């Protein structure tokens, strides 16, 4: 039986947003955002270009302070941003190990190679990032989701960007399994992910 279905319904939320509002460049982006996300739940943040999806994710991760409202993160969090800070001079395996170390979860070479296999890059481990396509670079960033001891709350900005359909399917399967195991995730996307599990949605409108 999946772990999530055995969790008590009273399990504390992994994320709480209370009346959160944010402005950027003097423009109000969103206000009154209320969310209680529990272990085993996936939240898809939707909205037009410029509606504030990335801004909301950055608030959740503590990278920016909201104009109003309260954010409570109840679990360790992994953030993979829209532009995930990849270094052209690093090899694929160096980049993955460096991302993990920066997030405070150093991994062995074996762990990194094992995480590169599901994203189809195990044969490319020695290539420099500068030699990769946009979709392959996104795969390097997403390989963190297959490392051991991955945090329980994932915050993923446009994880589908530049991915082919096969990799989009694999990412959806990984998200489904994560939720089955009691993890939770917040993600933005302009397209639906081919998820097996039900997904909650939050739409940011234009103010
Ligand atoms: N550093 C900044 N200074 C001023 N304005 C900013 C800054 N960062 C973002 N903005 C503005 O905030 C608004 C929301 O941006 P954000 O990136 O959150 O939108 P988004 O919904 O993620 O868009 P997209 O779908 O295009 O990725 C945009 O109008 C953008 O111009």
TrEMBL record:
Which InterPro entries did the record assign? AAA+_ATPase, ABC_transporter-like_ATP-bd, ABC_transptr_haem_export_CcmA, P-loop_NTPase
| Family matches, as Pfam families | ABC_tran
Q: Which top-level group of life is the source organism from?
A: Bacteria
Which keywords has UniProt assigned to this entry?
ATP-binding, Cell membrane, Cytochrome c-type biogenesis, Membrane, Nucleotide-binding, Translocase, Transport
* ABC transporter domain ranges (all copies): 15-207
Entry's Gene Ontology molecular function annotations: ATP binding
What SMART domains does the database record attribute to this sequence?
Answer: AAA (SM00382)
Q: What is this protein called?
A: Heme ABC exporter ATP-binding protein CcmA
Can you name the source organism? Pelomonas cellulosilytica
Which gene carries the instructions for this protein?
ccmA
